[in-house]
Specification:
14 helices; about 35% helix; binds glutamine
């Protein structure tokens, strides 16, 4: 069914970079045989799933949507991919994205832009645009994305699906091609909250291969789906409904809050005073980490290599000049500059201090409240080409998602209505560290 749907719509949506049809159909057959033998166990048994192309899959091309990895076939599976095998899902293929997960519109893909299934003149969001669009277009039921500064929640919001960024450490990053290691998390994108909880259940947990994965018990997330939000205390940061947030986005959030109020929850306005510095701190820190992480793409170890270099230095230089796209180069230059001696204290170190202040903002609010609610993005999906030449406006689109990554807390985007132009709007629900259950409980109350 998935492949039929893909053949019908993917020419327009452009969500997939690589399909794994032969292996997927074989796996489906094997699972079918198991079913007949009465051997099934997993909740996700036989479910078709798409995997973002920065998550490595053994023998299945993994490009990070970059020319520099055009012909790269990994020799191992990421931990989450192994876990999907154990959960008996069927991997359909690899999903398009912004190159190395740097972007908010998918226009930075080194191959082709993904389009929003609700209106193909609009972007699907990014960087997990393929992950969100493939689920929204009915090509797969589930997908995995990654979120460094909003890359799961923002495209989920733009495409009208459910996307969760787990707590930093909840899901193993082993086999996720690193962008900014202190911020990256893999998470589930699905059509509804229940599916989302099942998929997180399958991929969560400590992993000896990732020393930043947390040794904390993984609860049964679906037990939280009770519909009961009585007595729940909600904080609504005034910074999240302020300047730059359109009227229809604000109205949809207030409407969702009144639904929760009717169900017995209460809400109050709070402040996350350091939010205004989050964007600057994020772009410094994430670019610094990226400049170090992307040093490994040197034309020797992986993927693309320039032709006929005259010496080793030229091999590096030409491979990287030809292989990386403009946005990736911009981040590497920014990060290299911020980390260079003489500038380190003024930029990188200061940004780390700001990050601590932002984390403390969240901790203070969570002393008195169970969840924080606001919009996922200031506007609905914008048009292709609208912001592509203006990086700063593009970066500003992440203003509501980035603080969550800097604090390391979990956050979800769930659909909360349509804009006047008929495009989806997303509600963001943010929880305490390792309290995805409460997020799911609140999100599920809308279904
Ligand atoms: N849009 C943000 C960026 O370009 C976030 C990306 C992400 O979360 N991977 O960095």
């Amino acid at each position: 069914y998935s492949f039929k749907r893909i053949s019908e719509v993917d020419e327009k949506v452009q969500a997939f970079l690589t399909l794994d049809e032969e292996k997927a159909l074989q796996k489906a057959k094997d699972l079918d045989a198991k079913l007949t033998a009465g051997e099934t166990k997993s909740m996700l048994f036989g479910m078709p799933i798409g995997v973002k192309d920065n998550i490595v899959t053994q023998g299945l091309r993994t490009t990070c949507a970059s020319k520099i990895l055009d012909n790269f076939d990994p020799i191992y599976d990421a931990t989450v991919v192994n876990k999907l095998h154990s959960a008996e899902t069927v991997t359909v293929g690899k999903l398009n994205m912004d190159e190395f997960a740097m972007g908010s519109s998918n226009e930075n893909s080194g191959f082709k832009p993904v389009r929003n299934p609700w209106n193909i003149d609009h972007v699907p969001g990014g960087s997990s645009g393929g992950s969100a669009a493939s689920v929204a277009a009915g090509e797969v039921l589930f997908s995995l994305g990654s979120d460094t500064g909003g890359s799961i929640r923002q495209p989920a919001s733009f495409c009208g699906v459910v996307g969760l960024k787990p707590t930093y450490g909840r899901v193993s990053r082993f086999g996720l091609v690193a962008f900014a290691s202190s911020l990256d998390q893999i998470g589930p994108i699905t059509r509804n909250v229940e599916d989302n909880a099942f998929l997180l259940q399958a991929i969560a947990g400590i992993d000896p291969m990732d020393s930043t994965s947390a040794n904390i018990e993984v609860p049964n997330f679906s037990e939280a789906l009770t519909g009961d939000v009585k007595g729940l205390r909600i904080a609504v940061p005034k910074e999240y409904l302020g300047e730059g947030v359109t009227e229809e986005v604000r109205a949809s959030v207030l409407k969702s809050l009144s639904v929760l109020e009717k169900l017995g929850a209460t809400w109050e306005e709070v402040s996350l005073p350091h939010s205004k510095y989050a964007l600057a701190a994020y772009y410094l820190l994430s670019s610094s980490e990226a400049s170090a992480n992307l040093a490994r793409f040197d034309g020797v170890r992986y993927g693309y290599r320039t032709e006929n270099p005259e010496n080793l230095l030229e091999l590096y230089k030409k491979t990287r000049a030809e292989g990386f796209g403009d946005e990736v180069k911009r981040r590497i230059m920014l990060g290299t500059f911020a980390l260079s001696s003489g500038y380190y204290d003024a930029y990188y170190k200061k940004a780390q201090k700001v990050r601590t202040l932002i984390k403390q903002d969240f901790e203070q609010v969570f002393e008195n409240y169970d969840v924080i609610i606001g919009p996922t993005t200031p506007t609905p999906a914008f048009k292709l080409g609208e912001k592509v030449d203006d990086p700063l406006t593009m970066y500003a689109n992440d203003i509501l998602t980035i603080p969550v990554n800097l604090a390391g807390v979990p956050g979800i985007s769930v659909p909360c209505g349509l804009s006047n132009d008929g495009l989806p709007l997303g509600l963001q629900i943010i929880g305490k560290h390792f309290d995805e259950s409460t997020i799911y409980r609140v999100a599920h109350a809308f279904e």
